[in-house]
Design a protein that fits this description.
It contains 6 helices and 7 strands, in the order αβββααβαβββαα. It has about 200 residues and is an alpha+beta fold. The chain has a 3-stranded antiparallel β-sheet, with helices on one face.
Length: about 200
């Protein structure tokens, strides 16, 4: 009888150990399945995270062009825009850019296009309004140059139409700066402002 009890106790202990081992293995299996799923997702994500800089190998990706316009609008120099896009895309999103980024001359053309679109937009908005207010403000920058900001305000918004350095702060200097800013948009706008 003592022998049977020893066998029973040994068997029970072995079964308990086996149960613990099975439980531990099941937990490890779940953890490994989660890790496999995460790695599969990361692999799929890395394969999908390639951004083409060109469409049909020729035209600039419209999202890339829009990003270039935004960065230039924020004041980033044309020579640095493509570098900034690459740093953000690859550094922040871990995506890869496929193809060449726009050169400085292309960034310059994008900037010119942006300015033309902005001028057209301002002209349309001003021509739709019955009342437009001209505002300007001048300040001296760190280099000692006088800088003047020229704005046109409608009932709904204020539109920056010029930010120019000028030689001095006389009435003639302001007049030239304001007139040049308005005429860069459209000479017809200056006639409209004069009649209000």
């Amino acid at each position: 009888m003592l022998y049977q009890q020893e066998v029973h106790e040994a068997t029970s202990a072995a079964l308990k150990d086996a149960g613990k081992t099975i439980k531990t293995l099941k937990e490890e299996k779940v953890e490994l399945e989660v890790k496999v799923t995460e790695l599969e997702y990361k692999l799929k994500e890395s394969e999908e995270m390639k951004i083409s800089t060109r469409i049909d190998g020729k035209r600039i990706n419209p999202k890339l062009k829009a990003a270039s316009m935004y960065l230039q609008n924020l004041g980033l120099a044309e020579t640095n825009v493509s570098k900034a896009i690459k740093l953000v895309v690859e550094g922040v999103t871990s995506s890869q850019l496929e193809g060449p980024l726009p050169s400085t001359s292309t960034q310059s053309r994008i900037g010119s296009e942006m300015k033309a679109l902005a001028k057209k937009d301002i002209k349309e908005k001003i021509n739709e309004c019955d009342n437009v207010t001209l505002k300007y403000d001048g300040t001296t920058d760190r280099e000692g140059s006088h800088v003047t900001e020229v704005e046109l305000s409608t009932e709904n918004e204020t539109l920056l139409i010029g930010l120019q350095r000028q030689s001095g702060a006389t009435a003639d200097d302001y007049f030239r700066t304001i007139t040049n800013s308005i005429n860069e948009i459209d000479t017809e706008i200056s006639k409209k402002l004069a009649t209000q």
